What we know:
By secondary structure, the protein is α+β, with helices and mostly antiparallel strands. It is built from three helices and seven strands; from the N terminus they run βααββββββα. It has helices at 23-31, 33-39, 121-145, and strands at 13-19, 42-44, 53-57, 66-74, 78-85, 92-103, 106-114. A seven-stranded antiparallel β-sheet has the order 1-7-6-5-4-3-2. Helix 2 packs across helix 3. It starts with 12 loop residues before the first strand and ends with a helix.
Amino acid sequence: MLIADPRLNPAAVELGNFFPQTAEVVWAALTQPDLLERWLLRPTGFAASVGTHFRFAVPDLSTNAITCEVLVARPHERLTYSWTYRRAEPPTKWIVDWTLRPQGRGTRLLLTQTGFDIEDRRQKMARNAAERSWKRRILPRLGEVMHY
C-alpha cells in the first residue's frame, strides 16, 4: 500500500539538482548580483540579508514588475525570498526557497516555489509553466554560471 507523504505539496514546485561545486560556490551564484543576472534576472537593491527589499528587472517590462523581500538568509545553507509579480491581475505572490546541502564533493540544491492556488485553473497553469521554466531553462543556466 502506498502512503502519501504529507510533506509533499502538489501546489509547490519542488526541484532538486546536484552540482559538483561546493556550497560556497553555489551560494555565490545565488547571491552575487552579477552572477544572478547571468542565470536568472538582473536584481536591483539585492543583498542576502533578511528584510532586504529588491526588484528583478524583466526585459521589456517595468522595472517594478517583480518585487521581492529576503525572508531567510543563512550563508551556504538557505536563501528564501518573496516574489511578487505585479503585472498579473491580481498580483501574484510566491515564496522561492533555495536549500543547499553538502553532498560528497558537491552540493545538493533544492528549489521550492510555493504560493500557487491549484484550484484556480490559471494558477495551476502558472505553476506548471514555472516548473518547466525552472527545470528546462533556468537551473541549467545556473549550472553553466558556476563553471566560471
